[in-house]
Write a structure and sequence with these properties.
The complex is a heterodimer of chains A (329) and B (71). Chain A is 74% helix and 0% strand. Chain A has 16 helices and no strands. In chain A, α9 packs antiparallel against α11. With 71 residues, chain B is mainly alpha-helical. Chain B has one domain. The chains are: A mainly alpha (329), B mainly alpha (71). Chains A and B meet through α12, α15 and α16 of A and α1, α4 and α5 of B.
Chain lengths: 329, 71
């Protein structure tokens, strides 16, 4: 069982503070604020927060090691800069980040037409954004350089969605830019930590890492969601590549089964290497441990899928050959 | 219906319909016929070499309760 640890400093203190506890506390705080600010909508929003989490528990979802580590990153940076926890600050940052996540997720779901319930919850988008932004007003006065970062990354995040939606075919350069910008909001808490510690000089490396990790994460997301994306008519780099590579009389799905998924896995592995190189430069033991754990979990997920796709392809080859030959060339 | 279209339909059933993989496993010929594909005797024999449990893994990974999300 994960334990919450009250901390006020000391080596590795940030690492000790339970991620799950921090996320759960932030979500509870958010639910309480919802009941105050949006009493008529609060219950529905609260239920939605749980329902979009596989497994039905919002805190488990956001602290899943396979998720982009939006809540962990600021803590890891703080650890490398100070070696100790600033528990109240970290708690606030987590709250802001969770609020920002739900704002983005709510709008994304409306845009992707994942569900109809989100449309009725749209007034909560303003609430989430206000909570996300409001926390930083406690720490940085207007005119502080932090706000330039905030505005720039928040705008990049919104613009990426618009740019992606306009594309019918995605090239690699588009993918690199869009994927990095989609996760740009995750850079805001990193900037907050760096400025609070008066160490903005560390930001370029951390922000660069964020970009590369965003690209790896988006590659993976596109790989696992290819069927939904295909059915929903969404443009991704993975599906654009499949469209370009398939034979004239072959479907995108058949190409994915034949070789596309393996290609996507290989691309993801190459991107992961780039991420690891960047991570080493950040000198964060916790980050490296996280990446190693994540890599093992992903390898365990990907291997059976690839095996299953090989069998589906074998099935196709058999069906294409009246004599039952299942030799895969 | 062309074999490509049939295979398309088969992929969809294998990945989207809960339980189809078990029909494929227990009675591949019957499952394929239900999907509009009529295999030859040689094909039915070859179908025994398929690992249908692994196809179930694919269906679960993409559509099951353990559907994976990263962001």
């Amino acid at each position: 069982m994960r334990q919450a640890v009250a901390i006020s400093g000391g080596p590795d203190a940030v690492a000790v503070l339970s991620l799950h506890h921090r996320v759960a506390t932030s979500i509870e705080r958010l639910r309480n604020r919802l009941h105050i600010e949006l009493p008529l909508l609060a219950q529905d929003v609260s239920t939605w927060m749980d329902n979009i989490a596989p497994g039905g528990e919002a805190a488990n979802y956001l602290s899943d090691p396979l998720m982009f580590p939006i809540v962990q990153l600021p803590g890891w940076l703080l650890q490398t800069l100070t070696g100790r926890a600033d528990a109240d600050f970290l708690s606030d940052i987590s709250y802001s980040t969770v609020s920002g996540y739900y704002q983005i997720r709510l709008l994304d779901n409306v845009r992707d037409s994942h569900g109809t319930i989100e449309t009725s919850l749209l007034p909560a988008a303003g609430f989430f954004e206000s909570e996300f932004r409001g926390i930083y007003e406690k720490y940085f006065h207007s005119g502080h350089p932090f706000w330039e970062c905030f505005e720039s990354f928040w705008a990049a995040s919104s613009a990426s969605v618009e740019k992606e939606a306009a594309l019918r075919d995605m090239e690699l350069n588009d993918f690199h830019q869009i994927a990095a910008d989609k996760f740009a909001a995750a850079k805001i808490p990193l900037c907050a930590v760096a400025y609070r510690c008066q160490r903005p000089d560390v930001l370029p490396l951390w922000l660069d890492f964020c970009d590369e990790f965003a690209r790896a994460t988006q590659s993976l997301d596109d790989l696992f969601d290819w069927q939904d994306d295909l059915e929903g008519g969404r443009c991704t780099y993975f599906l654009s590549h499949a469209q370009r590579c398939k034979a004239v009389d072959e479907s995108v799905a058949a190409l994915v089964i034949r070789e596309g998924f393996s290609w996507g896995v290989q691309r993801f592995k190459e991107q992961t290497l780039v991420v690891l190189v960047r991570a080493v430069e950040l000198n964060s033991r916790e980050l490296i441990q996280y990446l190693e754990q994540r890599e093992l979990m992903l390898a365990a997920k990907l291997a059976p899928i690839q095996e299953g796709l090989e069998n589906l392809h074998r099935l196709q080859v058999i069906l294409d050959n009246q004599n039952g030959d299942c030799t895969i060339l | 219906m062309s074999s490509h279209l049939n295979f398309e339909k088969l992929i969809h059933k294998a990945l989207k319909e809960p339980g189809f993989y078990s029909k494929l496993k227990s009675d591949p010929e019957g499952a394929l016929k239900a999907a509009g594909i009529h295999p030859t005797h040689a094909q039915v024999t070859a179908l025994k070499s398929i690992d249908y449990n692994s196809i179930r893994s694919v269906a679960q990974a993409f559509n099951g309760p353990e559907d994976t999300t990263f962001c």
